Amino acid sequence: MLKLLRKNLGFSILEIVVASGLVTVGLIGLASLVIYNIQAFSINRDNLIAAQLAKEGIELVRNIRDTNWRDSTKTWKEDIVSDGTYTIYYDNPRSTINSSANSVDDAAARLYINVNGFYQHGSGTPTQFFRLISITEDTNDYITVLAHVRWSNRGQIHNYQVSTRLYDWR
């Protein structure tokens, strides 16, 4: 009887194959989850950057309007070009509104990262982001400002748009 018990102490080849299969399936599932999370992180990061870039574009135009209000010699929309599509610089928006880009795919709409880590048009390290500001003069009392950011990630084109109305409520 003691001899019979010692014979059955090892694993059979079938038990080893089944256990290896279960471990492999678990590891494949874990690996696909990690890959999915890395992709989701990349997409979410780009969406967040695009949202902030679009918001910045709106705020730069709003800054011009607010600066005009403080200067009693100017109208509220004096340096805001109307009815067109423009690029705008973060460091000096008043002097750098321009219409060199016609669509968000134009090279002039591309954003670059400068040495200080800020996104800007013109020079620096090129990014995947393009930004244009569209301004429409609806009435004498308000203008509509649309910030459009486009980028490409893994061969897919993504768009983010923010729109607001700026009023003359001085």
What number of structural domains do the residues give?
1
Order of helices and strands: HHEHEEEEE
User: Approximately how much helix is present in the residues?
Assistant: 40-55%
Secondary structure: number of strands: 6
Name the average pLDDT: 84
Nearest-angstrom radius of gyration? 28 Å
State the separation between the terminal residues, measured CA to CA. 102 Å
Number of helices: 3
Global shape: rod-shaped
**How would you sum up the major sheet?**
6 strands, antiparallel
- Unreliable stretches (pLDDT < 50, length at least 5) are none
Strand content: 25-35%
Structural class: alpha+beta
Notes on the structure:
By secondary structure, the chain is of the alpha+beta class. The chain has one domain (about 15-165). The chain is built from three helices and six strands; from the N terminus they run ααβαβββββ. The protein has helices spanning about 1-5, 15-70, 95, and strands at about 85, 110-115, 120, 125-135, 140-155, 155-165. Strands 1, 2, 3, 4, 5 and 6 form a six-stranded antiparallel beta sheet that branches. A hairpin with a 4-residue loop joins strand 4 and strand 5. The longest helix is centred in the N-terminal third of the chain and has 58 residues, at about 15-70. The mean pLDDT is about 85.
